[in-house]
Every structure is written in C-alpha cells, then in structure tokens.
Amino acid sequence: MRKFSADYIFPVSSEPIKEGVIVTDDEGEILQMDRRENHDPTSLDIRKGVIVPGFVNTHCHLELSHMKSLVATGTGLIPFIQSVVQYRDFPMEQILDAIERADQEMYEGGIVAVGDISNKLDTAAQKERSKIRYYTFVEMFDLLQAHLTEPNFNDYKTVYDGQSTAHGNRKSVVPHAPYSVTPDLFRRVAKFNTEEDTTISIHNQETEHEDAFFLTKTGDLLKFYGGFNLSLDHFEPTGATSIHYAMQYMNPKQRTLFVHNTMTTVADMQAAQSWSDRVYWATCANANLYIENRLPNYKNFIENNARLTIGTDSLTSNWQLSVLEEMKAIARYQSYVDFETMLRWATLNGAEALGFEQDLGSIEVGKTPGLNLLDLKEDPTTAGQVRRIGADTKVEKLI
C-alpha cells in the first residue's frame, strides 16, 4: 500500500482536493481518496505541486520515430508528406531501436495510453511488451485509385492481424484521410469494424488544401497526386468541406476521433457533432506548428462543447513525444485555455476516446490510471485558486 499527497489532487472527474491523499495498492489501483488531516503525516509521501492522472496520447505514429529531425519544419503538409515517403527506407535495426526509445520516452513522460497509427508491423513487438496500453489504428488508403483498393486493403489486413491485443491493447482498421480514401475503401473499413465499442481515427482538415480539393478541386493536393503520376480525372468535387465526405461512409454509432482539425470551422464541428454524439477531436499542437506554423482555434471547440483530446503525432513532425509539452504549447499560444480544461483533454477525454475510461483517465477508486506529479505553483494574484502551466513545468511519474 502507498499513500501519496500533494498541495492539490486533480481527479479530473471531480473537484480538486486541497492537501488530498491517494491510497493505492502496489499495482497502482486506487483504494481510497481522502484528506491529509485524516492520516499520520509519517505514513504519507508528501509532494509539492499537484497530482493528476496519467496522460493519454490519442494520436501518435510510433513507427516513424527513426525520422526524428530529418524533415524540415514549416513546409506545409504536402511537402512534409513527400519528405516522409522519401525517408522511410532505413535499416530495420535502426527503426526498432528508435521505436523502443520513443516508447520509453512516453512512459517516462507520464503517458499511460496511446492511440497509435500503424501502416506496418514494425511496432507490434514493442507494443506487446510495453508498459503503455496501446490502441492501434491500422491505417488504410488507396489514394483515390480504384485499382489499389482491394490489394491495399488485403495488405493492411495483414498488418491488423499481426497486432496483439494482450495486456488490454486494442486495434481497429481506419481510413487515413478523406483525400486518400475512395468510397469503396471507406465501405470496406466500415464493414470490417462491426462492433460499436470501436474507435475510428481519421486525419481531418490539417491543411487548407484538403477543403479546397473537395470544394472546387483546386489546391496543392492536385500537384501531390500528379507527382506520383496518379490520375484524378475521375474525381468530382463534392462542393462541401472534406469532413462531410468522410461522414457519408463512417458509422455514427462508433467513436470517431478526428485528428488535427487545424482548419475545422464551427459549421464543420457542429455538423459532425449533430451526425454523432460519439465524436472526439485530437489536437497535436506542436505537430501543427512544426508542419503548418498554425494552430486550431481552441475557443471554437470550447464554445461548442467539443470533446478535445491531445496527441503528439510522430517524432518526424515533433521535437518530442510529450503530452505535457503539447499542453505547454497550447498554454503559450492560446493562454485563455485554463489548466483544468487542458488536463481533461490530456486525460479523461483521451481515455474515453480510446475506450479505456474504465481503468484510465481519472483518479477514482477502482481505477489504475497512473499518477503524475506536476510542479505547478499557485498564482498569488488569484488567492491561490488558479494554476498555470509554464515553460519550466516538469512532470514526474509517480506510478
């Protein structure tokens, strides 16, 4: 049995507890929530700062970890993707070593669960032995080419079959993005995922060129496909933004995780949340800055009661795989987002989006959410009521 106490406990699912106490068993299951005054101080592990649940990273590409620092920043999404394709051929030993180190980095940074995109089997062995729980999204695309639909589906089905669900891990097949998936492939993915207790991840509106492609068949996606000598003569613009195309073919009864959403408008958001009450939105702030030099407007999401989650994307598009660093980026550029709101994005919303909320995401009796200590300080200008993440904030993994 262990007893942790701090200046504040933030359970997320309930109000913060000043000088709270968390009692756990040796495996990290929460046995009791209490106050410090009810315990012998010598029995407590007392810390300065705040204790929060373990972080949930809802969007990562672990298999791209070997490309850290190779792709230039600020190029925009289309040149970024072209660079990723160029750099994917590496010795397997180097790829596997980078995957292992990236997994350990996330664990040490207080991340307890990850929604991870896989196009290959490179990460499967590491996920099976990892201390982190993974939801693997086996990502499918056919680049809007009908002749690629069936062979690509079969190839990625092999990747799906090779992903383990040991230790509470989960998996599903998912569409890559609206601009890279034909209606037929969307239908095959939907037919494959039969259970409603499934999360479907899809990249969404990361660049202005995506909506231009669907609205008027203009923008740099035409050049992108042309660069691979792929014809788009058959494609007709829909006259609506890309998210509407995706929603035609996805199951509103399943959890849907829209990822990036840099260009998502209020109208898009409202349309998606009217389409399904199981919609979540993953934001990857540092990756958006790395690739496009812009961020979503978080105010729009907050005002529309959107369930935001936090992802890191890959080491190809980020400087690190840290949920805390994502929170710092949001706090730096859109400081009106308060700490408790961001904390929910980083924990319980993410756990719900991945279907892990029975165990993770909040500090509650019976859960094993992991515990992180953040060295936040009270703001003296607000009588100690407001806490903010700063550039020097650190996280210590307690459990």
Your description of this structure?
With 399 residues, the chain is α/β, with parallel strands linked by helices. Strands 1, 2, 3, 4, 5, 14 and 15 form a 7-stranded mixed beta sheet that branches. The protein has helices at 77-86, 92-108, 124-129, 146-161, 183-192, 208-216, 220-227, 242-249, 266-275, 285-292, 298-303, 323-333, 339-346, 348-354, and strands spanning 2-9, 17-18, 20-24, 30-35, 45-53, 55-60, 111-118, 133-140, 170-175, 199-204, 255-260, 279-283, 308-310, 371-374, 395-397. The protein has 2 domains: 2-53 and 364-397, Urease, subunit C, domain 1; 55-354, Metal-dependent hydrolases (TIM Barrel). The chain is built from 14 helices and 15 strands. The longest helix is centred in the first third of the chain and has 17 residues, at 92-108. Helix content is 34%, strand content 21%. The model has no long low-confidence stretch (mean pLDDT 95). Helix 12 runs antiparallel to helix 13 (339-346).
